[in-house]
Amino acid sequence: MARRAQRAFFYVMHASHVQKKLKLAIQNALKNISRKIPPEELPSPLKIELETPKDYKHGDLTTNVAMRLAKNFFLSSIKLAELIKDEFRKLFAEKELGRIVSRIEVSAPGFINFWFSREYLYNLLSQICKEKDIFGKNELGKGMKVNIEFVSANPTGPLTIAHGRQAAVGDALGRILEFSGYRVSREYFINDVGAQVELLGKSIYSRYLSINDIESEFPEDGYHGEYIKEIAEEFSKKYGKKFIPLDSKHLTGFIEKRHENLRFISQFGVKYILKTIENDLKRFGVFFDTWFSQEKLPPRTIESALDKLKAKGYVYEKDGAVWFKSTSFGDDKDRVVIKRNGAFTYLAPDIAYHLNKYRRRFHRLIDIWGPDHHGYIPRLRAAVEALGFNRDSISILIVQLATLFRNGVVLSMSTRKGEFITLREVMDEVGCDVAKFFFLMRKLDSHLDFDLGLAKKNSLDNPVYYIQYAHARIASILGFSKGLKNRLKNTRCNPHLLDSPEDALLLRMLCQFPLVIKASAKMLEPYKVVDYLNELAKVFHNFYTKHRVVSDTDLPLTKARLTLVSGIKVVLANGLRLLGVSLPERM
Q1: 79 is in which domain, residue-wise?
Q2: Partner of 544 at 20 to 30 A CA spacing, among 224, 244, 428, 457?
């Protein structure tokens, strides 16, 4: 008995290597085919990708390797897929892999589809119940040190829903990467210098004068909104009339003549706004390890980074400006880093900032930006490569905007005009869980329509409610089963009783969770976890409508199904936790 248990444990422990074993078997099958049908030169290295099919009718794993290599063998993709399938069967029929895969089929136009065996699925269910909150963890990152910089909203106004979406994405991605063996550091870059900060100070000062009954012209393109008045009121409470000129007739040019006052007011506004941003993010469940101020990058630091590029021959002067030779690394044109007037462009401090990250010994950088920065990607990648770092060591993710709807009407947003819905308002209206989940409901590169009406519904139409309700429903089932605790204690759990189509589909879905997490970490796409949880909840709710879990007349089946729903609860909890969403026991 002990020997049998040990063998099962050994078998389950190697379940995470199933994909690797399948890929190796496919490679061996291709070698055997090559001896019979010599191909043209095959790609090297030979990449074999195994993915989860979109439709479960097509198995648990699928590969398109036959479609990619068919022309090399002068065969149709279907014919090559059939040959691989036949060779594959010979290779694993008598080996351990044969106990994991029970069925192989070919589907048009040349996919090879694999089904896991019931034995594998039953063992995996046991593994889920043993591992609980660590089920699905993997070592993809192998301890690699990763910096994720996200949100980084200019400290000139409150966080909007666009920032909220970036916050949800960055937080979920950080959790997924940590679950996948990476050492993650979350960073917020504070752009607290430059024209926009100066304009913030002018806007606050104008409101400050108004509060003190002094008329002043509001700056052109200044920041509007109630929050500017709030900051001005706080400033007035703290400093009284200290910043009001003795002669109110000489207001014109007052700020321009006293730059130190303007800078002081600007920094007061920056600190005030940053505090509200930090509080909103904490409430949203998003925390940062580092708040990096641009002031930490003084001119000499930026010049040092540019000198490093110049020494490599990638910086030159032309037309009175200084240029970065980004075309040497795939950019469509060279970029100015120092203007004719001696001022840095946005690119110059960004180069220094990313060099600073590498000097802090991060192996990989991930920047999460809004869509207005899309054209900026090639020049920053070029700078990273020019500095001597691997081009692939930086990933720049563009998160598309979110449009907010209320009663079918689009709500407009403009920070300058003061017409926007803040993240705080959304959290107040729908709650943090719902807000976070809705922000993750689409792929990063897809525009998001955020329906406030749907988000407020406590019904199965609401996607986050739908998933949380599945978790709470299972908690209720497990609580109800405690009435049979003594009778179930001596009942053996026989997973082979889980033989209905609904049981089988749930088991197959559970085995996908580790694959989904790994794929999400590789692709840097949290939506894959959202999509998986939606489907798992859907399959569970369907199962629940057709089958009774707890029955005092069939204890063996009850024991088996309680094990099954316990496994589902573990996976739902792990998935929601990775998204930063709570796990209610009651709803």
Answers
A1: 2-116
A2: 457
